[in-house]
Structure formats: structure tokens, C-alpha cells
Amino acid sequence: MGMVRAAWFLLLLALLAAADARRQKGGETACDKGWECSGSRFCCNETITDYFKAYQFEELFAKRNNSLAHAAGFWDYKAFITAAALYEPRGFGTTGGREMSMKEVAAFLGHVGAKTSCGYSLADGGSLAWGLCYNHEMSPSQSYCDDSNELYRCAEGVEYYGRGALPVYWNYNYGIVGKGIKQDLLNHPELLEQNATLAFEAAIWRWMTPMKRKQPSAHDAFVGNWKPTKKDTLSKSRELAFEHMMTSL
Ligand SMILES: *[C@@H]1O[C@H](CO)[C@@H](O)[C@H](O)[C@H]1NC(C)=O
Ligand SMILES: *[C@@H]1O[C@H](CO)[C@@H](O)[C@H](O)[C@H]1NC(C)=O
Ligand SMILES: *[C@@H]1O[C@H](CO)[C@@H](O)[C@H](O)[C@H]1NC(C)=O
């Protein structure tokens, strides 16, 4: 999985860098102040819509509407941007200058791609082209209900299998994430496979929020807001710490 993520990340960076070069060369206006900007003071200035456009999203997730893709027609650019706009004021894709911002979005989408890909190395276009193929776990082996959790009790008739852009599993995780994005995911986990904006919101919320006490968020680890201490077994590099963060998401 680590290799797959790394490959995703490099591909995304290459695409973003190419687009950036094109943009600067062409001297075109970076933003048309369209729907994606309404209500955001961050919009169109070193923000995600400034360096990551719809056509790039289409290129990155080229096979997601293919007839073989399980979530065909579900994911779109607008959903990602709408969700991202809520977290840009908190630094998502807007921290540390353009290069760092682009890298963070690439890393985030790389993880999303790796976790939602149905591609195999022999798939048409290679496995990397098949991100956002799923929006939920296909053959759950259980309902992921932890009865011992008193804070987030399982709702009746509801299953907590993996759903979303960075799939959420288990009642307690649906409870925590639901609280984070202000949606009743404990009673309605299906929202994450019915609404792509909420699916991205949940994923970005988890990216921005520490999942365990004394751990940084993936965002903080990635942009360098958090420095590993000498005692940390994972202090070798930020990348390793970051990988560790991701596996705990
Ligand atoms: C973009 O943001 C920078 C830094 O916040 C600011 O200095 C600059 O004036 C802004 N440019 C525009 C066109 O809003
Ligand atoms: C894929 O489907 C989405 C949602 O229906 C749509 O917005 C997008 O344009 C489609 N992309 C392609 C490449 O067909
Ligand atoms: C998805 O959720 C968002 C945020 O709550 C909401 O604004 C939007 O209307 C929903 N979309 C659909 C298709 O239900």
C-alpha cells in the first residue's frame, strides 16, 4: 500500500506541476470567480481552485465513470471543492505557500485514490487511473458494530461498513466523524455513499483532525506544523510519521 500511495503522490505532483507551468506561461486569469468562490475569502488566491482545476480532477480519476467502476457518476470535482472550501480557512491546501499547498492536496487525493481504487496493475490505464472507483466496501464480512461502545451506540438495522473517500468503519468512528462534520452519521452512515460532498467532507475532516491523543493530524504532520520528538520511534522522517498517521485514520 505504501508503494501504491507513493506512486499516486508522484503522479499527482507531476500533473499539478505541469498545470502550474501551463498556467504561468499562458498568463491566463487563474480564477473566474465562479460558484466555487462564493463565500470564501480565500478563493482564487493561492487556494485549491487556483491550482487544481476540474480538468485535472478528470485526468486524475479518469476511469471513475467507466462502466466497470462501482461508483460511476458519484464523485465529482464540485463535491471535492465544496468540501475543501470548508477546511481551507483551517489550512487545508492553503498552508505554507503554493508548493506546499499543492503537495498537500496531492497527498490527500493520493490517499483517497489508493483507498478507493479498484484497479489492478493489469487494469486498463494502470491501477492509478482507477481511483474513486468505489464509494463503499463491496462485500462487508461483518456489520462493524462494537456493542461495548456506550458513547456511540449502534443504531438498529444499520451497518457500519466502510464508506466514503477515506472509508469510515465502525459505529464509534461514524459517531466521531459525524460529530466533526455535524451530520447524524451514527443513524445515517449511508450519507457517505449517497452524498459525495459529505464523503469528501468526512475525509478532509479526518485529515485535519488528530485521531488519537498526543498525535498530530495528517495535515499537521504533512505541512510540518508538528515535529517528531527524539523519543518517537517514527522520527526518521516526516513521511514515515505521516504514513503512520494515515494508517490510523
Ligand atoms: C493574495 O494573497 C496574498 C497573501 O495573502 C496577498 O498579499 C495578495 O494581495 C493577494 N492577491 C490578490 C489578487 O488578492
Ligand atoms: C463523471 O460523472 C460526474 C458526475 O455525474 C460528472 O460530473 C463528470 O463530468 C463525469 N466525468 C466524466 C469524465 O465522464
Ligand atoms: C449533500 O450534502 C450537502 C451538505 O450537507 C448538501 O448541501 C447537499 O444538498 C447534499 N446533496 C444532496 C444531493 O443531497
UniProtKB/TrEMBL annotation:
Pfam families: Glyco_hydro_19. Residues 56-234 form the Glycoside hydrolase family 19 catalytic domain. This is chitinase. It catalyses: Random endo-hydrolysis of N-acetyl-beta-D-glucosaminide (1->4)-beta-linkages in chitin and chitodextrins. It comes from Triticum urartu. InterPro entries: Glyco_hydro_19 (IPR016283), Glyco_hydro_19_cat (IPR000726), Lysozyme-like_dom_sf (IPR023346). Disulfide bonds join C145-C154. GO terms for cellular component: extracellular region. Keywords: Carbohydrate metabolism, Disulfide bond, Glycosidase, Hydrolase, Polysaccharide degradation, Signal. GO terms for molecular function: endochitinase activity. Its EC number is 3.2.1.14. Residues 1-21 form the signal peptide. GO terms for biological process: cell wall macromolecule catabolic process; chitin catabolic process; polysaccharide catabolic process.
